[in-house]
Amino acid sequence: MRGTRRRPHKFRELLFTVGEMPEAEPVARDTPQTVLVVEDEILVRMVIADYLRDCGYRVIEAGDAEEALKVLQSSEDVHVVFSDVQMPGEMDGFGLARWIRQNQPQVKVLLTSGNAKAAATAHDLCEEGPLEAKPYQPQTVLDRIKRLLAENP
């Protein structure tokens, strides 16, 4: 499990050209909701995790499904899991989504992948439609997370 420390915003510029990164839209809540970001590509994970933090979410990071399971099985109160489909290890994002459905159905799932063939499987495992295709826009991810949380605040 990776910590929730803040990183310099210069990492965003490694993935997005100047002007493409939207300004963070703070979420008005007394208690921040928790998003578990599961992504093995560290720079991709850092960018979306920092953006969601700037928007007011509490973000926990995991580099693979095994780390994510440790978080989900701990006392952490996770509201949404945003996970890549293709990851190293014995369990991929689909396996993680299935585990969440069976063991913690209250946790919302949003999957992402650069593989177009993954869309059909993701549709059955995600509450908010098919997976988010890579490369994604942080604002789009934020909008989908907001819709997921609005269903069951």
Largest sheet: 5 strands, parallel
Mean pLDDT reading: 81
| Radius of gyration, in angstroms, nearest whole number | 14 Å
Helical content band: 25-40%
**Beta-strand residue percentage:** 15-25%
Low-confidence stretches: 1-19
Entry summary:
By secondary structure, the protein is α/β, with parallel strands linked by helices. The chain is built from 6 helices and 5 strands, in the order H-E-H-E-H-E-H-E-H-E-H.
What is the topological layout?
Layout: H1 12-15, E1 34-38, H2 42-54, E2 58-62, H3 65-72, E3 80-84, H4 93-103, E4 108-113, H5 119-125, E5 132-133, H6 138-151
Parallel strand pairs: 1-2, 1-3, 3-4, 4-5
Description:
This protein is an alpha/beta fold. It is built from 6 helices and 5 strands. The protein has a 5-stranded parallel β-sheet with strand order 2-1-3-4-5, with helices on both faces. Helix 3 (65-72) runs parallel beside helix 4. The two termini are 25 Å apart.
Q: Key features?
A:
153 residues, disordered N terminus, 6 helices, 5-stranded parallel beta sheet, globular
